[in-house]
Amino acid sequence: PQGSEEAKAFVNAFLKRSMPKKKDEAIQDILTRKAVVLEHYSKKRTKQKRKKTKGFTAKQRREMRLFEIEPEQQRYTIFLPLHELWKQYIKDLCHGLKPDAQPQMVQSKLLKADLHGAIVTVTKSKCPSYVGITGIILQEFKHVFKIITKEDKLKVVPKLNNVFSLEIDGFISYIYGSKFQLRASERSAKKFKLKGTIDL
């Protein structure tokens, strides 16, 4: 136990250390009013940079065949439930696809929509062998669509120089592949401009 003088000296020393900018008179004035606010000097913490987890490179993905569909999985019937999910997704995206829906609004939504699961048909092409191919889009890359047909054949159809038709509940939309050469993730953020005429 300390005496009153020792306690007073301790308090004064403590306050001087805690409030180095204040003079002795100011500290005594604070003590008489019995309101002591200690100044706190926080040390600046250096923010630790978070290390980004490195994913696989494109070369590693190709070597591991991450995006390849096994031959036993290349069956049209397997992906029909995916198409039903896609139809529901588009209906929700376009607010139900009501008969009075404006075609331009539906078209603008489709331009940015995810097309995995959509049934498309090649209606025009500079290469006649592509015309008439119909199937479910399994994968979309920057330059090609991978489509599974009813004959259980996986077709790789380039976007360039091809026109695709997309039918949802009677609403038919046309995709000009030459103007559609983007990845699905990039397309969702792109602003498309309406143009009068589009050629293959």
TrEMBL record:
InterPro entries associated with the record: RNase_P/MRP_Rpp29-subunit, RNase_P/MRP_Rpp29_sf, Rof/RNase_P-like, Rpp29/RNP1
Subcellular locations according to the entry: Nucleus, Nucleolus
One Pfam family matching this protein: RNase_P-MRP_p29
Keywords: Nucleus, Phosphoprotein, tRNA processing
GO MF annotations in UniProt: ribonuclease P RNA binding
One of the protein's GO biological processes: rRNA processing
Any one of the GO CC terms: ribonuclease MRP complex
Principal subcellular localization: nucleus
Oligomer status and interactors: Component of nuclear RNase P and RNase MRP ribonucleoproteins. RNase P consists of a catalytic RNA moiety and 10 different protein chains; POP1, POP4, POP5, POP7, RPP14, RPP21, RPP25, RPP30, RPP38 and RPP40. Within the RNase P complex, POP1, POP7 and RPP25 form the 'finger' subcomplex, POP5, RPP14, RPP40 and homodimeric RPP30 form the 'palm' subcomplex, and RPP21, POP4 and RPP38 form the 'wrist' subcomplex. All subunits of the RNase P complex interact with the catalytic RNA. Several subunits of RNase P are also part of the RNase MRP complex.
Stated role: Component of ribonuclease P, a ribonucleoprotein complex that generates mature tRNA molecules by cleaving their 5'-ends.
Protein name, UniProt field: Ribonuclease P protein subunit p29
The encoding gene: Pop4
